[in-house]
Amino acid sequence: MNSNTQNDIPFPEPRRSDPAVLAADIVERLTYRIGKDAKAAKPHDWLTATILVIRDRIIDRWMASTRKTYESGGKRVYYLSLEFLIGRLMRDAVSNLGLMEEVRDALASLGVDLDIVAALEPDAALGNGGLGRLAACFMESMATTDIPAYGYGIRYVHGLFRQQIADGWQVELPETWLAHGNPWEFERRESAYEVGFGGTVESALAPDGDARYVWKPAERVIAVAYDTPIVGWRGNRVNTLRLWTAQPIDPILLDAFNAGDHIGALRESNKAESLARVLYPADATPAGQELRLRQEFFFSSASLQDILRRHMQQYNTLENLPDKVAIQLNDTHPAVSVAELMRLLCDVHGLDFNDAWELTRRTISYTNHTLLPEALETWPVPLFERLLPRHMQIIYGINAKILLSARKEKGFNDAQIRAISLIDESGDRRLRMGNLAFIGSHSINGVSALHTELMKETVFADLHKLYPDRINNKTNGITPRRWLMQCNPGLTRLLRDTIGDDFLDNTEALQALDAYADDSEFQKQFAAVKRANKVRLAQVIQSRLGLKLDPSAMFDIQIKRIHEYKRQLLNIVEAVALYDQMRSHPEMDWVPRIKIFAGKAAPSYHNAKLIIKLANDVARVVNSDPAVRGLLKVVFVPNYNVSLAEILVPAADLSEQISTAGMEASGTGNMKFGLNGAITIGTLDGANVEMRDWVGEENIKIFGMTADEVTKVRAEGHNPRAIIENSRELAQALHAIASGVFSPDDPGRFTSLVDGLYQHDWFMVAADFDAYAAAQREVDAIWTDEKSWHAKAIRNTARMGWFSSDRTIRQYAKEIWRAG
Fold first, then answer.
1. What's the CA gap between 363 and 358, in Å, rounded?
2. Name one Pfam family in it (predicted).
């Protein structure tokens, strides 16, 4: 037996993991934990039993990782994010433990297929898109690179909605991923904290004569922790994802219930549970805005209380907080943490304001994910002050400190003072959470080289002048375990057979593949893997949508959140123009192409939902028109999530990364596609710029205006109507859309979308159309030269190793967190 040196409590020996032992353990869990005879067990029973057996093997390493961190006194990283798009965990955990074949053999000996039961695991509905998936990749990479870390978020009961398409329209339904429980998680009843809202602030004199403030909330809820272990590659470290759920202080008002007010008796319970019910409740109403702010403060406060409790328990002092704790804010959602940490340090632990500010600033760092001013959260001051009165006082104190310093020490003028102020006075007074996160952090990082430079010039220009050493770049990355080894096992096997196993631990070793890019035999093997992945996707689409696809056609894929700046509309308009050309010129040798879309639109985002409807209306017409002879098909795949992405990404021939230049912070879908051998068509936006530098200009198709050109055109004004009228293909395509060719039941359905292009074209769809269409025809030409296409695709895989999230995390650890 192993011994715990702290108190001599023996630890059990680590469990064996040969197939026979695993099989016996699975049957034991099936019998005694699930209560099923193996002969009567259903696939979901086998799934749960297998997860429990794998979880036991993880726990040994989890506890060892925790002990190692405690005994070494190492610095812990705390990653605060409103989203963690972790997807299915079983295959991820089994692969990282190195037990894939053992588990497969164990289940096979019981007459069970691993792939079938693994596909039954629900996707954890804890995120929306790139932000949440990045957080998930980072959690896995922190464990892989041996960084002691906790992720903090909310345990959403429903999370982001489940998307259905009804008559071409998006319909939002609740995602019931927790309906049958979550075998991965552990409730931590001892890690429960009160979180307050509203009320009053009272002051009193402390023994030292200074004023002390006491917040007396009018409402209180209990935050209860649920922990999920996150396994790093080869299982060397297991970190913790801690998600909060909300419980009322009093679950039921019994007097009201007994008096017959059955609904009112549960009012407090319902109010508390709403905090962890849905990710991103619609904020078009004041009630929706208030719920979002409550959610953000709820998880931030619980997380910070937990962090300080753990720190004080080990060190019994706050003086070394920045030396032992690094708190990373993932976007502005947890920005209220700046004020909450100040409150806890000052009001609970009795620190002086200036001392607390120094500790706060040295402990917190902030990742910015957007250059869109409207995406940098702001809150109406009256709402914030009503919900968090003490925090508003603290924020005013911080603001005064910063503005006085800027005026006195930096000589800032009135315009600069207005720009850096935490309070926007230009209309109804609003609290700027981006400014709060910036001012309260010692490091502010962008997520691509271009994005970071644009931050300095645009949204944070004056704050950058005030603090010129704070902004730095950490280009995003993806975990190669999920986005190559697990989602594309065929390619992984081919790579291992060709260049060896070094890339499994260091993805930059993929560069050895460059030597095989022009090798005819390797090209055939590479193409065979791609075709197999395309056949798999075609089968999924046929089973879900009843649409048959030809795997020999080019699979042209755009999958991401539906937003006007991501320009799915540009892609659809080009599809309409291509459809017109194919019908008008049947004598031409057209490349067979299948345009595949997937993504969700925010429930209150009218234009994004209209774009989904347009994609489906165009698909209905194009796919049923014999005139195109099956050379063009358009597909919108519903309910995009991590598991669907794992099927779509390996099947892509062409990766659409066509956002308006200067508006995409980084993107990570571009990296996933490139790693799996897709060629990118895209603008010089986000990480596309660095991808071009790594893969080579000849292996990526760049088109359109640069970020500087977009800025100049917007400043000087442009005439989109003239652009459209001078582009015959564009004008014809827009006329067809606006006149009801694709919406005969409602000819005016898409008039507003088209009018937006004629009137202002803010996202440069019309301005970039001709360049995009020309680039697509150049892509066609490359496709017809199979050897050239395969060589470029192989070089994309070979040269994408730098875009690993392991590299990103090592940069965070060395340059921001000073950890590891």
1. 9
2. Phosphorylase
Decide if pLDDT at 7 tops 70: no
319 phi-psi bin (left φ>0, alpha ψ -120 to 50, beta other): alpha
Q: Global pTM?
A: 0.96
Any domain includes 501: yes
Q: Let me know if residue 341 belongs to a domain.
A: yes
Residues 433, 507 share a domain? no
H helix or E strand, kind and range, residue 431 = strand 430-432
Q: Say if 290 falls within a structural domain.
A: yes
- Cα separation, 200 vs 217, in Å, equals 6
Are residues 511 and 386 located together in one domain of the fold? no
Residue 37 CB coordination number (10 Å): 10
Q: Which helix (H) or strand (E) holds 679?
A: strand 679-682
Please give the Cα distance from 462 to 370 (Å, whole number).
17
pLDDT tens track for 263-314: 665 577 778 889 999 998 888 889 999 999 999 999 999 999 999 999 999 9
- Inter-CA distances, 254 with 250, 260, 267, 474, Å: 9, 10, 11, 53
- The β-bridge partners of 193 are 223
Q: Which amino acid is at 819?
A: A
pLDDT digit string, tens, across residues 685-739: 999 999 999 999 999 999 999 999 999 999 998 899 999 999 999 999 999 999 9
Q: Which residues are catalytic?
A: 369, 560-561, 566, 668, 672
- Let me know if 74 is exposed, middle or buried by CB neighbors in 10 A (0-12, 13-18, 19+): middle
Domain count within the chain: 3
Token pair for 332: 């502005």
Buried b vs exposed e over 691-707: b needs ≥16 C-beta within 10 Å? bbebbeeebbbbbbbbb
Place of tokens 């002051």: 203
- In this structure, are 440 and 495 located in the same domain? no
3-state secondary structure of 122: coil
Query: Is 201 in the same domain as 303?
Result: yes
Task: Encode 727-736: b = buried (16+ Cβ within 10 Å), e = exposed.
Answer: bebbbebbeb
Does one domain contain both 101 and 171?
A: no
Looking at residue 157, its amino acid is: V
Q: How far apart are the first and last CA of the chain?
A: 30
Domain that holds residue 467: 74-89+124-475+810-817
Q: How far apart are CA 803 and CA 674, in angstroms?
A: 10
Same domain flag for 99 and 158: no
Of the candidates 70, 215, 48, 169, the residue with the CA atom closest to the CA atom of residue 118: 48
422 by DSSP, 3-state: which? coil
My answer on whether 115 and 131 are in the same domain is: no
Residue range 215-252, pLDDT digits in tens: 999 999 999 999 999 999 999 999 999 999 999 987 65
**Residue 459 near residue 366 (C-beta atoms within 8 A):** no
Do 450 and 498 lie in one domain? The reply is no
Calculate the CA dihedral of residues 584, 590, 592, 598 and round it to 10 degrees. -60
Judge whether 69 and 76 are in contact, CB under 8 Å: yes
Alpha-carbon distance of 384 to 558, in angstroms, equals 38
- The reply to whether 731 falls in a domain is no
